[in-house]
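Look at one such:
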Amino acid sequence: MPETAHPTGTFATHREDRWWHYPASILFILSGFVFYATFRILEAQFLGAQFIIDGGSSAVVAATGSAAGYHYLSPFGTPDLTFLVPPFLLSIPFFGQFLANPAAVILPFPAGFRFTCYYYRKAYYRAFVARPAACGTEAWKGREYQGEKRLMIFQNIHRYFLYAALVITVFLAYDAARSIYTPHGWYLGIGSVIMVVNVALLTGYTLGCHSLRHLTGGRLDCYSCDAVSMSQHGIWSGLSKLNTKHGFWAMASLFSVALTDLYIRWVGAHPGITHVLGVPV
């Protein structure tokens, strides 16, 4: 039978299934996270919202009758690199105040890591501009797919964002441990559990990175030539197992970062209720 004419229109395709559900959901999720992160930065900038809350503060003691003992630091505010900002930049009106915000200084690094990630490239190419819309989908017929050419060639700096992401993950692990062994003693709260889970998901996402696999062993031509290459092959194999679920780690860690910050923000706004959400140990 002769092939039928290709349908016309921007998203025209011969597929009859609802292939657009997945890219549409990614569009919604990524847009929502960008909106929330932007809101939190502006909230800290203009309303003085804090990314760290401490159960031993005088305000919490007055609200609860005793120091609750918790010590939580949002992933949006760690590590605090504002001390690296030159003083003359801090003196610039508005712009200096923006640079004094820990989130404004640190978030561009994990954001850059995710934006240039191989999984997210596929996700937002399909979700935001439908180039390509999905595997096996002939949308935008007649337009050449450019990939990482021209404007998007900067995606190649992903490896350097990886280095920053590894360092940030170490800081987040420290913050999670500090939420249990707090300045006020040992304390186990819901926030601590959420922070630990967040670090676990971020670790799976970061260690499953395609660039990290390449650095550890993917660039080798021989895995059995010597003891070092054999060790690298073992590391590469372990990271490859994480990489097979890279999409899961990417989206799960995105949700966990937002949930961790949202919970810490909520506890900071309701200090009087924290005595039922954690216990000294």
Summary: The chain has a mean pLDDT of 80. Residues 71 and 183 are 8 Å apart (CA to CA). The first helix runs from residue 21 to 46.
